Amino acid sequence: MAFVAVEGIDGSGKSTVIQLLAKLLPKVYVTKEPSDGPVGRLIKEWALKGGSVDPHVDALLFAADRIEHYKREVEPKIREGYLVISERYVESSIAYQGAAGVPIDFIKYINKLVPRPDLTVILDVDPEVAEARIRRRGHVEKYEYVQFLRRVREIYLTRAAEEGHPVVDASRSPEEVAADVAEIIHRSVIEPRGRQSLG
Ligand SMILES: Nc1ncnc2c1ncn2[C@@H]1O[C@H](COP(=O)(O)OP(=O)(O)OP(=O)(O)O)[C@@H](O)[C@H]1O
Ligand SMILES: Cc1cn([C@H]2C[C@H](O)[C@@H](COP(=O)(O)O)O2)c(=O)[nH]c1=O
Fold first, then answer.
1. Are 15 and 180 contacting, i.e. CB atoms less than 8 angstroms apart?
2. Ligand with the closest atom to the CA of 123
3. Which ligand is nearest to the Cα of residue 55, counting in written order?
4. pLDDT computed for residue 196 by the predictor
5. In which residues is ATP bound (predicted)?
6. pLDDT of residue 140
7. How many angstroms separate the alpha carbon of residue 6 from the centre of ligand 2?
8. Handedness of CA 68, 71, 72, 74 (dihedral sign)
9. Is 33 in contact with 88 (CB distance < 8 Å)?
10. What ligand 2 atom has the least distance to the C-alpha of 96?
11. pLDDT tens readout for residues 82-100
């Protein structure tokens, strides 16, 4: 049916909001990156645990995982008529690997083999709020510190302005954030398709 990416810095509440979206919208299939495929597992077990020494390696691994994930899981589910919601997609690579120093043109080039989503929504929150949430959650990962997340957020917001991605204030309750995102998905993806099918 359609493909939506939900993006935002670590701790912005993506997983929490996507779980709520699955209850608010019809026929939703939820997935995420890094994926559960072989490259996604390598990323989670090696690259995100400090294994890779160059951010270009991370960028290449995330792009390879994305191609595999899209072909194996996303595309078939869209064909089956699902509204596929992915937690993270190409904008994550642009924001995180861009913040780590990889040129954005290079990131765009290695991600050319996957299509753009029908909609990308950015959950926006102050990195200090995000870091407090992450610390309350318990485990802290590779990119989860305020100075880095500030750079990531800046790239997300610059790209959102350039590409027209909606930005949602994610400092509110999960229910308020999810209601806003559901409304945006309805307005931009579900309703236009309904109109098309009416002719
Ligand atoms: N709107 C919110 N207000 C307060 N706490 C929240 C909110 N959304 C999520 N949380 C809490 O913050 C923590 C991180 O949330 P969540 O895992 O949904 O974020 P995320 O963006 O998916 O993070 P990551 O990218 O690190 O996986 C969790 O403990 C969650 O319960
Ligand atoms: C897809 C993608 C992810 N990342 C980073 C962002 C996060 O810090 C981790 C994933 O962890 P999560 O808590 O499960 O969201 O990976 C990245 O740097 N580049 C990417 O393309």
1. no
2. 1
3. 2
4. 67
5. 8-15
6. 76
7. 12
8. positive
9. yes
10. 18
11. 999 999 999 999 999 999 9
Judge whether residue 199 has pLDDT over 60: no
Structure token digits, residue 176: 């308020």
Choose among 53, 74, 96: nearest CA to 2: 74
Q: Tokens for 106?
A: 């290079």
Distance from the alpha carbon of residue 109 to the mean position of ligand 1, in angstroms: 31
- Tell me which residues have their CB closer than 6 angstroms to ligand 2: 10, 33-34, 48, 62, 88, 92-93, 96-97, 141, 143
pLDDT given for residue 107 in this prediction: 98
Q: Whose CA is nearest to atom 25 of ligand 1?
A: 10
Of the chain, the end-to-end C-alpha distance in Å amounts to 17
- ipTM of this predicted structure: 0.98
Over the stretch 162-189, which tens digit does the pLDDT of each residue have? 999 999 999 999 999 999 999 999 999 9
Which atom of ligand 1 is nearest the CA belonging to 176? 1
Residue located nearest, by CA, to atom 27 of ligand 1: 10
The model's pTM: 0.97
CATH level 3 topology of 2-198: Rossmann fold (3.40.50)
Which residue's C-alpha comes closest to atom 13 of ligand 1?
133
